[in-house]
Amino acid sequence: MANAALRLTTLAEELLGAPLPVRLRAWDGSESGPPDAPTLIIRNRRALRRLLWKPGELGLARGWVAGEIDVEGDLYAALDRLAGFIWERGDDDPEDRVHPLLDPRMRSVGRKLVEIAGPWPPPPPPPEETRRRRGTSHTKRRDKQAISHHYDVGNDFYELVLGPSMVYSCAYWDDTPGFTLEDAQRDKLDLVCRKLALREGDRLLDVGCGWGSMAIHAAREYGARVVGVTLSREQAAFARKRIAEEGLTDRIEIRVQDYRDVRDGPFDAISSIGMAEHVGSVRYREYADDLHALLKEGGRLLNHQIARRPEKDEDQYHIDEFIDAYVFPDGELAPVGRTVSILEEAGFEVRDVESIREHYALTLRRWVANLESRWAEAVRATSPGRARVWRLYMAASAVSFERNRIGVNQVLAVKTPEGGASGLPARSRTWKG
């Protein structure tokens, strides 16, 4: 097939109704498109068959994970240029859109693409994709399976990506020269502790405690007594080892436990950092009710959570296909307004909401740099496909935060007693304990 890149570029521009914003290199070595743009490489025609069977994000992701699609040049620039075609094709309901190949006007384009793509059927999905899930979403059993898929990739892999801080959530950055990822994660943990007004002897529940970083910081720096819960056995084992090395076993208990099974409240404070995205819209009120019940009167909740932008029809809840299949099975994002409303419906008084959206883009770029600088080790720790999943996921997420497609917010809420005294400082924005 002569000049496959030119043929594909021409067909793509007919489908999209606009010039292709990246350069294209096909499996036959041919190239087409703007010479100064990042190059999208299609190494094998199998990638086209994936796109024909799963148009859009999931088909592209399968080709990427399988190594059939790649980018030469600046990955962020390529994703930024493609964002308008992959994610931002207008405000209409994605489920109401007709794929261009099904449009009668585009049938000739479709026939040509089928001719280029080669023999059917499509190849099977790469093995890193989530297998068929059974039962109702967000039950305890299924949540445990979803958490295991994401977090039990291997502690060695996460150490390569996250660095010494072992914090897998948005850091809190400063403009100070030489400010590192570890500095930013330390400052984020300290910000959470200060917002919660932690004091010596306070009892803290850390929901979704990860590898123990928040628990260690709260116990070591503020004298808190901490219970951390996670559904990942690998995380729990790693956290317990760190806690023993810090000499904090008398102050911190790590449990492999669902937060819905915690029965030994009340707590003075609860931190939930990057965990609520796993809860699901159908369970979010239950989540808020459970945390409210676990706090003493005057107790504080710091809910640190990624948010999406509101949609026209909020009764329709859309899942990101790539993230659901490869990264966070059953993960869901809600607008921050819905989160605030549900927390207040559960009885909380919301006292502060802080957006730190740009901070997450910076964090993700550092994680991607860590992964790329130790790529061979990362592949050995997992698999080539899994390492490619994480590189694409984190780079695309950084672009999404930068383009304001998604955000991240810290919501401080209080279980205010009937008398109305919240117990917070008069000028709480100074975040003094």
Radius of gyration: 23 Å
In CATH, the architecture of the largest domain is 3-Layer(aba) Sandwich
Name the shape in a single word. Answer: elongated
| Superfamily (CATH H level) name of the largest domain | Vaccinia Virus protein VP39
Number of helices: 16
**What are the segments in which pLDDT stays under 50 over at least 5 consecutive residues?**
90-98
Oligomer: single chain
CATH C-level of the largest domain: Alpha Beta
Class derived from helix and strand content = alpha/beta
- The CATH topology annotation of the largest domain reads as Rossmann fold
Largest sheet data? 7 strands, mixed
Instruction: Tell me the count of domains.
Output: 2
Q: N-to-C terminal Cα separation, in Å?
A: 69 Å
Helix content: 40-55%
Lateral strand order in the biggest sheet: 7-6-5-8-9-11-10
Give the number of DSSP strands: 11
Beta-strand share of residues: 15-25%
